[in-house]
Amino acid sequence: MDRYFDIMFAYINQIWDIPEGDKMVCRLFFKPIQVKKDTILEPAGKVPMYHNFIVSGFMRNFHLDEKGNEVTVDLNDGPRFFTSFFHFMNGSVTNENLQCLTDCELLRISREDVDRSAAMGKTQKDYTIKVLQQKMEQDKERINDMGNLTAEQRYLKLIRNQPNIIRHVPLKYISSYLGIKPESLSRIRKEIT
């Protein structure tokens, strides 16, 4: 399981220098787990219990619209932290579901352990703030793209910036994430090729 932590620390070090003492705190509180494909890791209607770091695999965050259709609001494209951030941080009931789209290897930490580890570590608050800021910027960019880019432009941007999603995530989830009807995405893909 050292590999799990090596991948997480490499990710964190891109954002913030994490000292050895804080790495020990992470090893104490983050728990490695393996989750099977199609598992709903955190269901809607409950307070999210864990903050997840995806070591390997692909996950999505989705909710149901007023017609009962699934709306994918986040897809991961590599090792990164992944949860229903707002609800996890505020301890509130979420309308979102976290689903493993493939078999996943994760490190996860409970809300109580986040607070305990923050009290013990020197840099956790700093890199947690940076992770949240990055997530907010990504969400802001996505909202801007949904309002200002055509469906084809959104798809081409995803191909350019997150090619692993195109290779590993089913098209129905990609179309939902991009706000494109599946048949329109199929047409766009044919036109591009």
Report on the structure:
By secondary structure, the chain is an alpha+beta fold. The chain has a domain at 2-123: Jelly Rolls. Helices cover 52% and strands 21% of the residues. The protein has helices spanning 2-15, 20-29, 85-90, 111-120, 124-148, 151-161, 163-168, 171-178, 182-192, and strands spanning 31-35, 40-42, 50-56, 59-64, 70-75, 80-82, 97-100, 104-110. The strands form two sheets. It has a four-stranded antiparallel beta sheet with strand order 1-8-3-6. Strands 2-7-4-5 form a four-stranded antiparallel beta sheet. A hairpin with a 5-residue loop joins β4 (59-64) and β5. α2 (20-29) runs antiparallel to α4 (111-120). The longest helix is centred in the C-terminal third of the chain and has 25 residues, at 124-148. It is globular and about 55 Å long. The termini are far apart. The mean pLDDT is 93.
Secondary structure topology:
Layout: H1 2-15, H2 20-29, E1 31-35, E2 40-42, E3 50-56, E4 59-64, E5 70-75, E6 80-82, H3 85-90, E7 97-100, E8 104-110, H4 111-120, H5 124-148, H6 151-161, H7 163-168, H8 171-178, H9 182-192
Antiparallel strand pairs: 1-8, 2-7, 3-6, 3-8, 4-5, 4-7
Short précis:
By secondary structure, the protein is an alpha+beta fold. The chain has a domain at 2-123: Jelly Rolls (Sandwich). The chain is built from nine helices and eight strands.
In percent, how much strand structure appears in the residues?
A: 15-25%
Would you tell me the structural class of the helices and strands? alpha+beta
Helix run count: 9
So, the CATH homologous superfamily of the domain at 2-123? Jelly Rolls
Low-confidence stretches: none
What's the CATH first level of the domain at 2-123?
Answer: Mainly Beta
First-last Cα distance: 41 Å
CATH fold name of the domain at 2-123? Jelly Rolls
Oligomer: single chain
Secondary-structure element string: HHEEEEEEHEEHHHHHH
Tell me, briefly, the overall form. Answer: globular
CATH architecture descriptor name of the domain at 2-123: Sandwich
Biggest pleated sheet: 4 strands, antiparallel
Radius of gyration computed on alpha carbons: 17 Å
Q: Which sequence of strands runs across the widest sheet?
A: 1-8-3-6
Helix percentage range: 40-55%
Average residue pLDDT? 93
Beta strand count? 8
